[in-house]
Structures are given as structure tokens and as C-alpha cells.
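Quick entry, no commentary yet.
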Amino acid sequence: MDRAQILALMREAMQSLFEIEPEHIVGDAHLYNDLEIDSIDAIDLIDYIKRQTGHKLVADDFRSVRTIDDVINAVMNKQAQTQTDA
């Protein structure tokens, strides 16, 4: 998946899981301050991404995540790591 596809996945996830309008899901949107995503919501988001991408994401992958761009980078890093391991 490329950045645009992951962003589209994030918009779908945020709307489906948390009823956040897609236009609010932009790269620099802060998960906690702007989108009101708490730690429990983050676990739901991780699970959703895992189910959609097939990449096994864990909480440690998200420790430094603060924005939508951070989530995209975490998914891309996991994707690259998985390809390297294969």
C-alpha cells in the first residue's frame, strides 16, 4: 500500500469506528487533541488496520504516534519490515 491508500484506509476506519468525517482526517490532524481518539480507541484502530492490511501491528508500533501522518508512517514501516522479513 502507498501513502494515499493508507490515508484512504484511515479515513474509512475513522468514519466507520468513530463517526469522524473524512475531511477531518488529514496528515497533521492530532489523534488525541483534534480527533479525540483515546487509548482504547487506538486499540480499535490498530485492530482495524491489522484486519485490513494483514500486517500484525502491536501497541509498541504506536507508542510515538500522535498524528494521522504518524499512523501512516507506522503502517508503512511495518509493511517494509514485513517485506524485508519475507
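second:
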Amino acid sequence: MDIELRNINLTLQEQKLFDQLSLKVYDGEKVWIQAPSGSGKSTLLRMIFGFMQPDEGTILFNGEALRNGNVDSLRASVGYIAQSAPMPLMPVHRFVEEWMQFDGNRKLQISMDAVRKVFLQFNLKPGILDKQTGELSGGERQRVCFSLLTLMQRNVWLLDEVTSGLDTENSHLILEAVQQANATVVITAHDGAWDKIDLKKITLNG
């Protein structure tokens, strides 16, 4: 799935984040967005996901402009992991069960056995399902959310600092999965580990 940003302008709290920003990510490309801290990388992913709108400009998926009337249908093709992977307070198994019931996931009929299997692939032991989400480390939250993303069959992955809380071994597992993903992937990261895989780099002016 192609993603295109055309002439995006956005000001937040009197700070101009984007001034006529235009870029295109082609179907199947894996792109690393690079920019200084505070320059709007996370905001950019939130706009692409439809969580917020630019002041001016257009965001398109396969040539279709993102707007209020189609944001839910287009979002069904996109998987998004926010920075620090925030979770509501509840048992992890309940978090997973509620995730399974989201409209875009219910039709996939993902089993709890499939969840346990993918958790193991990312070094998450079965007992994590019995923990409270508030007991998880930042790295565990990132791996839980990323594991679930790999089951969602989304055409686009938006990944905001998904390796920031991980050690080298677990970071490598994420990088390897991204490299093998059959998806358009947009990454924001300060973690130099991403240099280890083949990514197109796009630098935003800070």
C-alpha cells in the first residue's frame, strides 16, 4: 500500500512542525524517518494513522485521501504501535482478548494458542498472560504489542520507537521481523540498531 503526504502544514503549541512537507512511501517499502527530538516524528505517524489532522495538506493511501468519512476503513489496513506502547490497566490476557474483538481483528479468528506461539518468538514467556499490564516493563509492552501486530495481516506498519526499551537480543528479533514483513513499514527511531537492516532513510528538517 502506497502512502503519500502532500503539502502538509502543522503547527502545535505555536511550534511549526511541518511546512509544506511532501513525501511518498511506495508499496512494500521500509522507511526510517530520521529527525531531531521534538521535530514531530511521532506526530507524523499519528497523522498517518488518522489520530490527528494537519492544518493543511492531504494524506493518501493508494491515492485515496484520508478524511473523516473513511478513516476507519483505511485504518483497518494499518497497524500502529505508539511510542512506549501504552496499555490500559488490566490483566494481559484480558488485553489480548479485547484486542481480538476489535472489528479489524475479529474476522482473523486469531486463537490464544497463536498468541502464545508468537509471544515465544519474541521471548515472552506464557506466564506473561497472567500479569497485569502495569507490571510489564517498557520492553515487554513493546514486544507484546509488536507480537500482536505480526498477527494482524496489516498492509502498513507504523512503528514509533519500538526498540527503544529493548536489549540487543530482543531488538534483533524486531529488526528481523520488520525485514521479513510483507508490508509497507514506516519507522521512527533514535536507535542506531536499525542501520543493521536495509531501510530507506528520509530525513526531516528539524
